[in-house]
Task: structure prediction
Amino acid sequence: MRDSLFTRALRTLRNDRWAMVCLAIIGAYCVVALLAQLGIIARGFGEIAGASYSPPCREHWLGTDFLGRDVLKRVIVGSKIAMSIGLITSLIAIPIGIFFGALAGYYRGKVDDLIVWFYSTLDSIPYLILLLALTLVLGKGLTSVYIAIGLTSWVGICRIVRGEFIRQKEMDYVQAARALGAGNFRIILRHILPNVFHLIVINFSLMFVSAIKAEVILSYLGVGAQGEPSWGIMISDARMELIGRGVYWQLLGATLAMFFIILAFNLFADALRDALDPRLTQGKK
Amino acid sequence: MIAYIIRRILYMIPLTLGVTFITFLLFNVVGGNPAYQMLGKHASPEEVRELTHQLGLDRPLPVQYADYLNDLLHLDFGRSWATHQKITEMISDGIVPSLSLAVPAFVFAGILSIIISLIAAFYRNRFYDRFLVVLCVIGMSVSILVYIIAGQYVLSYVYGLFPISGYEDGLAAVPYLILPGLIWVAVALGGDVRFYRTVILNESGREYAVTARAKGLSEPVVMGRHVLKNALIPIITSMAMALPGLFTGSLLLETFFGIPGLGSMSINAINDADFPVIKAMTFFGSVLYMAANLLGDLMYSLVDPRVRME
Result:
């Protein structure tokens, strides 16, 4: 008996040492984010913990910022924000993308025209301007950022799902399901969707990355997180510290925190693609 | 072919209408009354009412929308609320600085990416290739903000190689443009090299490449003469898709380096809640994007006659 795509992919991934390291890093960020959310670590991130601009030392591993706040605690809260942005925006965007993509690819015709028109329209607006305009209209704050990124990043998934649905719809197994009397709804959900799912998984990790990057830029520009230190806000604070006094640790802390999670997701996405995309496995000699 | 082009151009009409509808929805319906923001906290209700009337925002929404479309048809974007300048003038003023940053950076990044990806593909799966790919992923994982801040601090502030920010007209602009241009290249390189490398590797496994090798051609000749030509098709297409970014400029680079292009104009407009300017920039950017999309598809069929447009 042949294993399913996912069992095989899991085995490939488990043997891929780098993929496992990346997964461990992602897991560690999740744990830190969860602990910070529950208030177990990084409590009092907004309080003054010591002298201003203390360099990294034993009490403050990453030093303190211009107000004397502990940079490590700020990095941890920033990680919490970044992980929540990635997760929540994906939870908004992926269902929208799947829904429209499946509808357009399965039914074609007028529905398809309408959906393609809608996402082409959205796609033709410059991304950062659209994001900034949305947050401007919705008001500042993280909630707006969640909604803005979520509502703008489903287009990629939708396009992929639609294309794959068009392809899969003509396959024999769909014909067979229809011959057995399965309704459209059942064919979409139970038969085609599982065959498209691997593409969604690959895209999920790439979406996570772009959502985190977008949030950092929005927060840097002052329309993102308010009152909580997102990495974008830390980088913005650090810019003054660096140019004024050559204080580099806040910039370094935020940059490294962001660097490792994005690197992990980038590499993990590559590993996922290698493991899950059947066309690639066939092409490898 | 001509029928195809005409059909594509006609399809831009519903798309443009969609864009105008979205911007209208965002700014005239969801956005609330901008008069409050323009007048500040201490405005009296009469003042607000008067300004709302002046801006024409107290008319029924369909009338406002029809009016907006009518203005766009005459390429009239109105005036900025912040500076009262005509927006068409602002755009034509901003295009030159934007292009003078973007075009050299774009060309340089393109050539460099192709060269590096050829090198990586030449050494496929050996040390240099692995090293270059890892470098690309590392480059992609650093935020553009960090490139900007570190570049400004180290190169401009500590070593004084470039002015920190600013802009002058004509050739005097060059020193101001080098650092943002370099950052542009650094940011673009990671993703581009990875994509081009995949494309080139894909091609270099094809049968014609095997044949060329079997004829005894050396690997550099196979890569440079045969593989590159075919790999250029998707590469050129992806470059054409990036063209609109040249006009609208890089929002962040222009803002940080004080270059008075369309990118920093957009950011200023968003900071000032200058709705007409944001609407105009959205429209302008979208139309350029659609045109580039069409151009990309056409180039595809030009470079590769096997691709038929229907």
Q: What stands out?
A: DSSP finds 14 helices and no strands in chain B.
